[in-house]
Amino acid sequence: MNHDPLSDVLRSVRLRGAIFYYVSFRDEWVAETPASPELADALMPGAEHVLAYHLVARGAGWAAADREPPVRLAGGDIVMFPRGDRHVISSAPGMRAKQDDSDWRVTTRDDPKPIAVAYHDGVLRPGGFSPAEEASTVVVCGFVACDLRPFNPLIEALPRLLHVPSCGVGAWVAPVLDQAVSESRLRRAGSAAVLERVSEMVFVDAARRYLESMPEGGTGWLAALRDRHVGKAIALMHERPAEPWTIDELGRRVGLSRSALHERFAELVGHPPMQYLANWRMQRGASQLRETNATVATIALDVGYESEAAFARAFKRSVGQSPAAWRRNQRAPNQA
């Protein structure tokens, strides 16, 4: 079986990305990025979740999230904050930025990308050309938005701070970023869309590399994908969500007893197989409500419910809205 649940989730949670800042630093420096809710309000209004990543294009530095030890960043490294934590990048560990009450993120939000930002002696200067030639360190700061509801198992499966050393960064990343930024500066047609797609690709590549590097014996959704039995059960549910799966049938298909599959699945994923199936059906249903004009009854059958009423009840329990209301609210921003 070659079905890929990670790709399923990445497609269904609507990744939206853009490179926003090319940041130049010199001497002692520190910059702080707010948590996801504040970032979403400033940069991507309406987004449920925004995560940040930073690529060290020149120089070196340190990065730390709240309550996490700092990590050393060298040239070419990427550091990502998948769960949207407030975090700091700085020239030395343990530094904190002065309180910034300005609204520069909001006022520059719609400027052509990338937006040039310079930190000098603690003074922030948005605008101008970037990177500044006198800068000792240059960081490309990107942001990716995604949905959390009804079901996004990936975000909680990733660490709060994900450090990808330059030796682990895909060889394509730096040249593709440089090309995308160059095209944007020249204001070529479609350059903004190219930047967005590249930003999403950086996140996807980091998530894949984290999955591939995970040691044996871990827990969480990504660890479950690598498990011989549980990973196969997840792939089966993703491949055919409308199938009337039972834990007995799943166990038979993956080669485990009912009790063994239940125990192993719950240990790795955090909840039992049938709850996972219900969650995935809700996610599939939500995607179809948002992206298609299919009737609720058709979607209900397509994701494994015998009636529209049964699907509607389950959907409202999951997201707090009826399918029709969810569809209206999800489409309203795009029609404004």
CATH superfamily of the largest domain, by name, is Jelly Rolls
What strand order characterises the main sheet? 9-8-1-10-3-6-11
CATH architecture assignment name of the largest domain: Sandwich
Structural class: alpha+beta
Tell me the overall shape. globular
CATH T-level fold name of the largest domain: Jelly Rolls
Largest sheet: 7 strands, mixed
N-to-C series of helices and strands: HEEHEEEEEHEEEHEHHHHHHHHHH
The CATH first-level class of the largest domain comes to: Mainly Beta
- Rg from alpha-carbon coordinates: 22 Å
What low-confidence regions span 5 or more consecutive residues with pLDDT below 50? none
How large is the share of residues in beta strands? 15-25%
- The tally of helices reads 14
The count of domains is 2
Q: Span from first to last CA?
A: 43 Å
Helix content: 40-55%
Please tally the β strands and state the result: 11
Tell me what you see in this structure:
The protein has 336 residues and is of the alpha+beta class. The protein folds into 2 domains: 5-213, Jelly Rolls (Sandwich); 222-335, Arc Repressor Mutant, subunit A, CATH 1.10.10.60. The protein contains 14 helices and 11 strands. A 7-stranded mixed β-sheet has the order 9-8-1-10-3-6-11. A 4-stranded antiparallel β-sheet has the order 2-7-4-5, with no helix packed on it. A hairpin with a 2-residue loop joins strand 8 (115-120) and strand 9 (123-126). Helix 5 (173-185) runs antiparallel to helix 6, helix 9 crosses helix 10 and helix 12 crosses helix 13. The longest helix is centred in the middle third of the chain and has 23 residues, at 191-213. It is globular, with a radius of gyration of 22 Å. The protein starts with a helix and ends with a helix. The mean pLDDT is 88.
